[in-house]
Amino acid sequence: MIQMKTNDLISLYVSYVETNGGKRRPVLIRKVSAQTVEAYKITSKYKNKSAYIRQQYYPIKEWQAAGLMKPSWVDIGKLYRFPKKGLTFKGIGHLSKRDQNEIADFAIALKSKRKGKN
Length: 118
Description:
Strand content: 35-45%
Oligomer: single chain
Radius of gyration: 14 Å
InterPro entries: Plasmid_toxin/cell-grow_inhib
Number of helices: 2
CATH architecture: Roll
Number of domains: 1
């Protein structure tokens, strides 16, 4: 079995929040523990989102090297937790060192921007 690790991009089934169902989608692995996998959703839909939503989307600079088919963004607005047991996924690739460093800076900047609003 393929092991997943931090900064891997995988495809797995993600349930919808507002309605029933879901879809298979790419996610960025943030952390893997014995029981759970933490991940951020990846999307190629950016232009139609509101300014508020777009501010929490990190643009993957080296998306082709990461194994993605088209320009994509990581939605760091919500961290998802999945039970590791029984999780079926397909490997896509791995985030480049450049993107790993830049997404970390992006997350820090977003967090401080949000703190400033409260």
